Amino acid sequence: MSAAPRWLTPEQKAAWDSFIRMQEKLIGRLSRRVQADSGMSASDYIVLVSLTERGGGRMRFLDLAKLVEWEKSRMSHQVGRMAKRGLVAREECPEDGRGAFVVATPAGYKAIEDAAPMHVEHVRRLFIDALTQEELDTLARISNRVLAHMAEQPD
Fold first, then answer.
1. Considering its fold, how many domains does the chain have in total?
2. C-beta pairs of 119-123 under 8 Å, 24+ apart in sequence
3. For the HTH marR-type domain, which residue ranges apply (predicted)?
4. pLDDT of the chain along its 155 residues, tens only?
5. Which domain holds residue 115?
């Protein structure tokens, strides 16, 4: 017999619900802005930012999928759509016949360079400007604590 559910207290539920509402509204608004400002989807933006900021413009396919927390099939479809538009290219991995790299093309670099200033302004307007530096520091500590806790938990 399994243990009884550990239901949230009213205070815990209120905190969770507020967090989810904020996150969904923020991501929704930022996604709509990046689409309107640049013509890129939020997924395009995430892939290009990940490649250019963290990957030096080139990452192994599975490392990129893991970084953005996407399933392999979702990443494959996204990379395929972006490759058709010339934003990224797929390159075979010489050391591993089954592996592949995703590479930002010059057009991909231009797209992210054009979109990033507008995106950061929306992030600032909708999120950063609503909080004090002390609140931002606290949020960063809380977020890092939750991320570290999640890393210790089974998927």
1. 1
2. 119/30, 119/33, 119/34, 119/37, 119/38, 119/45, 122/29, 122/30, 122/33, 122/34, 123/30
3. 1-148
4. 678 999 999 999 999 999 999 999 999 999 999 999 999 999 999 999 999 998 689 999 999 999 999 999 999 999 999 999 999 999 987 776 667 899 999 999 999 999 999 999 999 999 999 999 999 999 999 999 999 999 999 87
5. 39-152
